[in-house]
Amino acid sequence: MLPRLGGCSDAVALCSLGVAVAATTPFLGIDPQHAAALAMAGTTWLGYRVLEKVSFSKAAFDSNVAISSSAKTPDLAGGAGMLIGYKVEDGRPVYVPDEDLMRHLFILGQSGVGKTVLGANLIFQQIARGGGLTFIDGKMTDEELQKIWQMCAWCGRERDLFIINPGRPEMSNTYNPLLYGDPDEIADRPISTIPQNDSNPGTDYYRKAAHQGIVTLVSAMKKAGLAYNFIDFAVMLMNSKALEELERKLMEVAPNSDEARAFSLFVDQFRYSAKPGADATIDMKRLKEVFGGIGQRMYLLGTGKFGEVLNSYTPDLNLFEAIMNNKIIYVQLPTMGKNEAAMNFAKMFISDFRTSISWLQDLPEENKLQIPHFFFMDEAGGYVSMNMTRPFEQARSARVILCPAAQTMANFKAISEEFAEMVIGNTWTKLIFKVGTQASAEEMAEVAGMHIVNVRQVAEARNKGTSSQLLRLDPAASESEGLSETVTYKEQEENRVSADQLKALGKGECVMLYGGDQVHHLKIPMLKFDSQEAKKYGKPRVHRFRKRAVKGADFFKNAEKYLSRKMS
User: Fold this and answer.
1) Which structural domain, as residue segments, surrounds residue 2?
2) Is residue 22 domain-resident?
3) What is the pTM of this model?
4) Which residues fall within 8 angstroms of residue 51, CB to CB, at 6 or more apart?
5) Among 268, 263, 231, 261, which residue's Cα sits nearest to residue 246?
6) Which residues on neighbouring strands pair with residue 486, listed in sequence order?
7) Do the beta carbons of residue 178 and residue 418 sit within 8 Å?
8) Are residues 155 and 257 in the same domain?
9) Do residue 379 and residue 283 come from a single domain?
């Protein structure tokens, strides 16, 4: 249960956060460093008030696995960070500072062992300290949405929440991943949905051709002053009359522009004359051979429920602006009913996020995020792709924390062996819950590394003897017995954590590998709202945003003009 706030100290902490949030506007003229200090002070006190309610009995730290944690722990050094869990040995809290969080986290474990609980803890801490976050939910449960909503409501940040769910338009903000960026950046997003096959030169040719075509179309529509969406692209890639209309509009606005010349050259490569002297027409069969796969993907994303969310010319969510303003973005993937479309959408979202990272990098130091943006990717193996490798290498300079979670290493190896190795190599903090496969357990045990231990060896020797004199008639004799023991110590290498230990971890229990030289055996606390709190906050609500109207391409709206058979 979360604590009820009251008293002078709590009021001062809340005021500090309020002033820090207000200071993000340029009108008050408050130094960003002073604002960050206020936010840090308020967050620290409120975090303490939350965590002081968490009481553990000794039984809470019982474990069937004996893993020796490192004596050394991560050092906050007076800076901000996040609580990961509590040491099994003595109950001490273990925090990771922001500087190391920006070197990224990796969470591994089978279903139902605590990955989502840890993710919820990190998300709550980020919301409580006024930071921004993006959470891609690969399971799409109403329970997770309710938790996010309650966290936002408890912190007074309901209006900072964006919900993106292409499967439920009534519970989703609008979002158009094709609208913002330069033509090259925008083209990368639909291209990311095409599987890469480096061993097939034909696939590479079509990827490059499709990329060039999309760049040309985006450039033309931007120059013509037209907003556009998925269904506009789908219509243009399936209908020659729509392409010809765009060409006419472009020639009216900017006939001598580079964009107009590039568009004409692009279209001309598909034009042909049925017979000498006849007007040239666009060969749609050839066009579809090059763009058919992309056109089909855009059609699926531009129609039905997906289209209701993604086809806006004035979407609620501008991803870069949301990140800059510390917004909370919750993305639900409808994987059960529309798995292919959901995965393609997720890949484009990540590609858009990648663009935002590059823009964040280019900002002057004084304009960069004071609190790092937290990007949590649950069940990431289903939708990340190779285009995510660069963010892992560069997101730190953009002050972004990347945190993918998966059930097995095979989820990432299915993308490529190189990708799996990149994730391991570019995550400073690894949190390993109970794993269900021997292969993943052995790999993580190897990542944990070896250490030198002194092994006590005891050698015991016994001797016994009997002697008697020769030529004696009586049986007199003498016996002797001896015992000796030798103790030696031998140094030998052992796994810091064995594969069997990782497979034997209990629920809510994990091994934290930190920085390559620390191992911590942790229990993860569960934050829970009681029924009264949950009732007070009610059901999640979507906040809509009014945007200035723009001129759209409207190719789908005017589709009747392009059809050979008129609609009745």
Assistant:
1) 1-53
2) yes
3) 0.81
4) 83, 93, 525
5) 263
6) 459
7) no
8) no
9) no
